[in-house]
């Protein structure tokens, strides 16, 4: 119940006083009831004692008195009930008042907040943000357009170059140690073709020799 | 509210209280001449009186009637405390804040016969009542002093039937803390109290 603490000073209002008065009345009634209850018990005792002594008249009188007091007791009971109901309704009304106060406070705050967010403001804000978004789109459009086809090609070329570099990097790593062994073989292989190359020449010369007699 | 007197204060309390072993020690009932012994005897007596009053929920002791109680009379060992010794013990308890003489008719302090026994100090009572107000949702409620001591809601509470003087002192503590305010009835008597939430 936050609104209690924000009350300027803790004062006793006239409502409080009224409640106190009623509660005091209730206390008085309760005390009265207690007293009557004691008397009731006492009178029953008196009646019994009178009966024991054989004094029927006295016993009857005591019981009659007692009956009257019992009626009083039930009357005070109903009075007490009325009083308590009234006190409770006042207390409940006070609670309701506080609730109402809280509701008022709340709706006031809500109103103030709503005033701060007026329709014009919201519209303007939405317009502004729409403008901002449009501008942003324009900027990105411009940036996209500024890259020409030539530049695009250059970019492609750069990508190709990078790929090649990658290839170059991967190829030479494989034969590093085997290369020296492979060299002699490679030399023989290289030599053979020379012999083979000579052979056709020889055959050619032979053939020429064979052909010469024919010619001759 | 002078009409309120707790029912236990005048009648003889029940004898079911479990007395400590010192209670069966005959010299305990005689004022010891040695001052050191007397000091320890005093503290033993005062804690016994506090425990006894707490057990029997006695708020006030009237020396003239209390001197007959089993508290000051051990019939098993046929020993009883003298009135002067009892008064001395209570004097010492008053000095320690465990009791308070109720200023009677005379201004002469030696004629005091009635004392409030604080088996709980007013500050403790204040805390207990404040907790009770809290737990029963009675903040900002108006209660009569009678209601606190005898009402339906306080039925099982420790302060049930609390002596009006002690209650008033406990409420004073709460008032000083800003947690309560005394209300006067139409005829100017302090009759009610309004409780506030603690700050």
TrEMBL record, chain A:
InterPro entries tied to this protein: Snf7_fam
Family: Belongs to the SNF7 family.
Compositionally skewed regions (Low complexity) per UniProt: 174-185
Region annotated Disordered, chain positions: 169-216
Gene Ontology annotations for the cellular component aspect, listed alphabetically: ESCRT III complex; multivesicular body
PANTHER family: CHARGED MULTIVESICULAR BODY PROTEIN, CHARGED MULTIVESICULAR BODY PROTEIN 6
Source species: Lipomyces tetrasporus
Annotated localization: Endosome membrane
Protein name: Snf7-domain-containing protein
Record field: compositional bias (Acidic residues): 186-198
UniProt cross-references to Gene3D superfamilies, sorted A to Z: ESAT-6-like (1.10.287.1060)
Keywords, ordered alphabetically: Endosome, Membrane, Protein transport, Transport
GO biological process, one term: vesicle budding from membrane
Chief site of localization: membrane
Pfam families in the record: Snf7 (PF03357)
From TrEMBL, chain B:
Annotated family: Belongs to the VPS25 family.
Keywords associated with the record: Cytoplasm, Protein transport, Transport
Pfam families: ESCRT-II (PF05871)
GO cellular component, one term: ESCRT II complex
Organism: Lipomyces tetrasporus
Primary location: cytoplasm
Protein name, as recorded: Vacuolar protein-sorting-associated protein 25
Subcellular location: Cytoplasm
PANTHER family according to UniProt: VACUOLAR PROTEIN SORTING-ASSOCIATED PROTEIN VPS25, VACUOLAR PROTEIN-SORTING-ASSOCIATED PROTEIN 25
